[in-house]
Each structure stands twice: as structure tokens, then as C-alpha cells.
Specification:
Two copies of one chain form a homodimer. Chain A is of the alpha/beta class. Chain A is built from 16 helices and 15 strands. The N and C termini of chain A lie far apart (57 Å). In chain A, 52% of the residues are buried.
Amino acid sequence: MAIPVETFYLNPDGQGTLQAQIQQMIAAGILSGRFRVGEKLPSSRKLARHLGVSRITVTLAYTELLANDYLVSRGRSGYFVSENAPIPPTYDPPAATEDNVDWSRALARSFTGGDTPRKPADWHSFRFPFIYGQADPTLFDHANWRLCALRALGQRDFASMTGDYYDEDDPLLVEFIARNTLPRRGITARPTEILITLGAQNALWLTAQILLNRRRKAAIEDPCYYSLRDLLMQARCPLTPVAVDADGLPPAAIPDDTDVIFTTPSHQSPTTATMPLDRRRALLDRAREIDALIIEDDYEFEMAFLGAPSPALKSLDRDGRVIYIGSFSKSLFPGLRLGYLVGSEAFIREARALRASVLRHPPGHIQRTAAYFLSLGHYDAQIRRMASVLHRRRRTIEKAIEEHGLTVAGRGVYGGSSLWMQAPPGSDTARLAEILRERSVLIEPGAPFFAGEDRPTHFYRLGYSSIPSSRIPEGIHRIAQALAS
Amino acid sequence: MAIPVETFYLNPDGQGTLQAQIQQMIAAGILSGRFRVGEKLPSSRKLARHLGVSRITVTLAYTELLANDYLVSRGRSGYFVSENAPIPPTYDPPAATEDNVDWSRALARSFTGGDTPRKPADWHSFRFPFIYGQADPTLFDHANWRLCALRALGQRDFASMTGDYYDEDDPLLVEFIARNTLPRRGITARPTEILITLGAQNALWLTAQILLNRRRKAAIEDPCYYSLRDLLMQARCPLTPVAVDADGLPPAAIPDDTDVIFTTPSHQSPTTATMPLDRRRALLDRAREIDALIIEDDYEFEMAFLGAPSPALKSLDRDGRVIYIGSFSKSLFPGLRLGYLVGSEAFIREARALRASVLRHPPGHIQRTAAYFLSLGHYDAQIRRMASVLHRRRRTIEKAIEEHGLTVAGRGVYGGSSLWMQAPPGSDTARLAEILRERSVLIEPGAPFFAGEDRPTHFYRLGYSSIPSSRIPEGIHRIAQALAS
């Protein structure tokens, strides 16, 4: 590849002769790894014109670099980076500037820290990845996704892919969600009551920014999804963790002064408890009584292979009090970053305005691709295939767990893709996870899900959405071994 | 298409017999447009099992709907939505719930309003669209973008497309930006000093959240990009608009107590002024003197067809004081939503954490597609092609403007894709735009770019990135006509 002439700049504060500066610039580019072996330099004529120097200056610099073995000449084809030049494997230039800014003072707010654990990016290389929420490439209908993406990249859809929509969404995707996805949860919503988000994370974040501040109180489930707790901490609202039981969030335990209730009724995260219909009604009554809003995170409802999922809380809402969050992260793949918010128009209008300010809109091309994948029926086929595989894995993992005498603390009654597990009291599952990692087993320690200082350390989560059935027994065997020792 | 059985739900609070409820549910689905003419209903056996009712109940409901002409029966193939059923063109269900929430009280903050104008989404249908910042489908290398997208959708890249990266970016894209894009601006940066964002809007927003609050003061150019002013108002920081001159932002006019300076030195937005090298140095000196940070929005630097763009302000930064924002919106297309932030590691770390909380990461597939398009050289070819077309359009528009005696208030010395125009003092270009819209001409009124109450109303912007050369003369003619009348 030729190195574009536009990437050459003389430092306006440069020292020495122009020829020396050009030599230095090219040598520095080679030494930092910016230029690679075999790449072609611009002709002396071109570079001279670009830098505004005489051609002989460039020629002399090139000749000097040739003599020092940084470059080789291939006659009339020009100059190339030499094989003998000392080039690092990746581009890692020396720090360009000293940092003379006092960042501890310059930052108005800090967002680092928090409970969200850093998961191993190389989970594919583990033999027994009992991880949660990552796509299993073997389950995804890759061929049809590609066809839908191609169609969305066609001339006809070009405008929807390339245009700036300001604050709008792809109308095809919104209509499909309204007509086909939400009715599966018993929800009736107009397009103006729906907003596409960059995944459920983005939906939760938007909701927190709009409904909460230092004076508004939020109630969250305990344990709960750690990233939710982190983003609420950033919203700086007072937080009350409410301990969940085998039926999920107990309405009576929600404090009277709560403004917003975050809940996962279909499949409590992480305990997997499903909230029974009676409690759903009680929760709605409680919210009405204290005039609170409810944020229903309905993740993973599609993975219902043991029985039909209950209708969403939102479907029972007669007040416009429930804001519903759906996502395609589990059923398609998380890297897609597509989710949606459903709520009253007054709320969706604000969420749309905030989203426009933060990022405008989710990329048009992925919205259109998803719309095609959904509307051509591939999504339904995909869900059925995933459900049947997950069902098989669930039977296998439950059998193995029973054989090895491990203790299940929670399992979704209608399906899901994980089990909530309990090691003997006093165990430290963070330590357990470290030991197991050495044995090519990944599990998720439970402590980060809990609020407060004194967190139970003996829970852990076993995901079965990314591990083939055939490896489950040996994986569980290794967990049992590690627990025993 | 068959209507999936999963989309049928009986209202748990439903009135009347089960048969009546089923009839009502199906009729309501048809009347709201949820079910379309010709769609197949589930078999009575399937629906009965799904709803947990007896099959005869469903059969009786279907028979009744058949009699009322909502459904037709096609013998053994089953029941279909009848052509005679009254079906609205789009799905528009009646409001499901009364809104019993007092949203004026429930919203902790409002994000609607602001200066960002709503532009016509149907700009394609105007003959003379002098609009700014939309992609011209005729200039985009659609075929190679498709090939890159396909490659990024291949099996080998599946993990990068589908995985949850938490807070990471595509390393291929980051390395390309570091090695090839930033050097064109004279900038040396390590991968840890780069963050991919959902477009420049997202980069500006992240920066404002991290560096500003109610006590930190920001200086902005006046006029400036209206969405920047809107998002800074949302960050609630005190704002000082500093009037720009023909060389852009005058450093001496920046107040001593400024914490963060937002500037567009390459191509002032919207006046298109290019800041000379001396003033760039003076601006850096001024920032050092008052210990302020500088946010450099380097949009559109690629459109340099009249001369090489000056090196970025960031390339002269010796303190780590400049945070640089780049974008692919203008050079690829805005719907892509890809931009990047370059700054000190301490800053990028916070921006990464905040981005993770807000949306995790930009979709993997679009990052990888862009990385291929860039690294295979298609991007450079695209830029060259765009530059040559824009150059031709620029000559055409300047000639037409001269012929019709219109007044240019600012034109980019090295290129760009717009001109900043001036109507006679006292004109109202918002009104002018309305009149022109009737004549199939789109222009952008200038007032929203200005801060404060008493905004000049006689400026307007003419973009030439979406209008073919051949239409420019007639478009300018119509503008001159409208101005004369």
C-alpha cells in the first residue's frame, strides 16, 4: 500500500534544516510503527509539493534514509520502507505531549469505578464458558442476517442507511415492534409511544436521566443487574435496594417515598424468579398508592421454552405508569446494540430529545437490517431454534448439577439462559471463579449483583447460552471439584 | 404471512364469555391495523392451546368472525383476514391506557426545546436542496461499502460483530485512525488516547458531561453549531458566546475565568472561516494562560479541494490541553453515526466509562465495516471523488452568486461544502426559507446559529453537498428572485 502524501506534516516548531526534518519525520514514522515494511513512500515531487519545499530537499532526505537502511529503492517504482528497518508490531508512538493538565481538577465529574465487572474478552478461548449474555455463533442465523443486511444496503434503502434522521427512528422497525413484538407481551402501543435505543443499557440510562435526580428516590431489586445500579449512582438519586424473594420484588417492601421502581418481573435478574400474576397486580397497586412509576426491564422474555411467559407488567398497566424496556441483545446479539422503550407519549418525547442530544439516533443501517430480519420471519425461526437448544442445555445442566450435588438458588420457571447458584455459606465465589479460570471454566461471581458493603459472596451465576451441551457435564464436574477442594 | 400464535393474549381483566373475548381480541387486532388483509390466523387447535381454552371456544369465535366478514375460510388451509374487513393503512391502536400520571411532576428534567431546528426529512423531493450535512447518494462508493459490510459480516468477523465489547472499541478501526487518519492532521496519538463515538454529536456530548457542570464556564463561538449550544445548556454550565471574525475565534476575547473553550479552527461552523496559524498559537497560549481546555471540532477537514488544510490545533498542543473531535459523518454518511475523540488518557478513560454507562459501545458491525472501507483505500478514493465534485459545485455556485449579485459572508479558504451568506440587513431568512420551500428550494436560515435573544436574522447557509452542479444556477436564481421580491 502507498502511504498517502496527506499524512505527512512538518512540525511548524521543527528544529534543524528542512532536509533533516523530513528525514526525522519519516524515520519517526517507521520507528513508531506508523509506516510498515514494504509500504511505498510518495514520490519526491509529490511530497515536495505537499510540504511546500523544493524537490531536491526531499530527494536528499530519501537518499540519506536509503543509506541508513530505513528505505529501499526499487528503481523507477520509487522508495519503500525497508525490510531491515526496525519496526514495532503495533503502532505505539511515544507520547506526543507532556500532560501539563491537572486532570484531577479539570474533570468536573468522574464516571470510572462502579460495580460492573470487567469480563474476559477472550471467553471464546475457554472450553467451559458458563457466561451470560454473549451470542453463541452456532445458534445465530448468520446467512439470513447477511441477506437482510445486503438488502438494507441496497440502492432503494440508501437514504435510510445514510441519512441524518435527527431524532427519528426507522419507521419500518418501529411498526414491526408495535404490530408484532409488543403484542406477544400483551402490550398495545402506538408508534409515538416507542423509542429505539442503543440496547437496553441505553434505555435504562435515558430513563434514569429523565426521571431521577438528587431528590427523586429509586427502588431497585437486590440483587440486581450491576450496571443498572452503577448508572443510578451516576444519576445521584437516593437508592433503596429491596431484597427479592422467590417471587421477585415484594411490593409491600417498597418505601412510601419511592418515585421510580426498577423491576424485572418476567425473569428477575439475576435470581431468575418469575413474578406471579397476583404479585404483578399488587405491584401496580402499590405503585398507584405511592404514585411511583415502574420501569419494567423485560429482557430475555423470548427464551420461554418451558412455558408461555406471563404477559408483561405493562400489559396490565391502566395508568400509563409502567415504562417498558425490550432488547434484541439476547435474541439476536449484544453487539447489535438495539433495544426499545415503550411508555406514555409525554415520556417518550423527552427520551427522544435526550437521545438526540446524546447521539442523535441509532445507525439507520442496523435498524433497517433488524426490521427486515424480523419482518421476514427469520427472527421467529431463530427464537424457536435457540429455545430448543437452550431447552436441551437446560436439561443437561440440571442433570449434571444434580449428579454433582450443587445447589440451585433460582431457576426460571419458563426458561431463560442462566441458573442462579449457591455455594456453601462462607465460600468466596470470586476466588472460586479465579481457580476455575485456570481450569478453562468461566463462571460469574454473585457479589457484584448485591448492593451495599456486606455482600453475600457465596452466590454465582451459570449461563448456558454460550456453552455447547456436550461440554456442560465436564464443566459442572470441574466446578464441583473446585468447590470440594 | 401467518400471524404468530404468541401475539395473542387474553386480557386477564377481560369481560364476557371466553368466546366473546377471543372474538373481540381478533376484531380489535383487525380494526387497529395490527392484522393485515390476507394474513393467516393460527389454527383453532394451536390458539386454543396457547390461550388455555377449549378448542370449540376458538372455533365458535372464528365462525362468528366469518359470519361478520372479518375472516374468510379457505377450506383446509384455515382462516384468513378478509378483504372486506375494515383495516386502516397503518397500525394505530386506540390508546391502551388513560394517562393517569402527572408527567409535569414525574419528569425530573426536560430535554425538549432548544435551538436545533427540525429539518425536512423529505429533502430528497426538493429540486434545489441547498442543505448541509446530508449524504449525496450519487457521490458515495456504495458498491465497495457493500463489499466491506459483507466482509465484516463474514464468519471470521462474527465475534466482533455480535459480541458485547462492554467498553471497548474495534481495535482495527482505532489503529487505522491512529496510523492513517490522525497523521493527516499532524496528530500523533496512541490507541489509548482514542475513543470511538456515535458521531461528533456524541463526542461533544460526552466531553460536556465530563468537563462541565453548573460551576464550570464554557466559551463558545458565536455563531456556532446550534446543537452544541443546546447540549451545553443541558449540561447547565455558564456559557459565554464569543463573536467570531474573519479568522474565527479571537483568543483575546475569551474571558479569564473560562474552563473549556469550544472551537472549530479548520472551518468555523457556520461562517467557514479558517483560523490562521498565528491565531492558533495565540489561542493555545491564551488557553495555557487561563488554564482552560480546548475542544477542537475538526469536522469536514477532508473536503479540502482548494488547498491543504492547516494542521489541527491538536497537532500544536504541547500540554495535552486540546481534545480533538473527528467524524465520518461528512466524508462517509451521517446515518453511519461514527466519530472519535482524541485526548489525554485521563480524559479518554472517563469518556469511555461514561460511554459504557450510556450505551456501552458503537455497534461492532459498523465499526468493522468502516475499518475495512478505510484500510482498503476506498475512503481515500471516495474523498478524492467528493472533493473534485465539490470543487466543481463550488465554482458553479460562486459564479451563480456573482451573476445574481448575492452576498457571501464567509467561504472556506480550503474548501468545505457550504457558504455562509448574507441577505440585506433587516431581511428575515426564516421567512425567505419558507417562501423558497414553496419553490422547491431549501436553504438554512442563520438565526439558530446565534446565541442570545436578539439574533441577526439576515444570514443563511447554502450547502452544496447534496445538490448537483446542473441545478445550482437555477436554484441561486430562485433565491435571488425571492430576495428581490
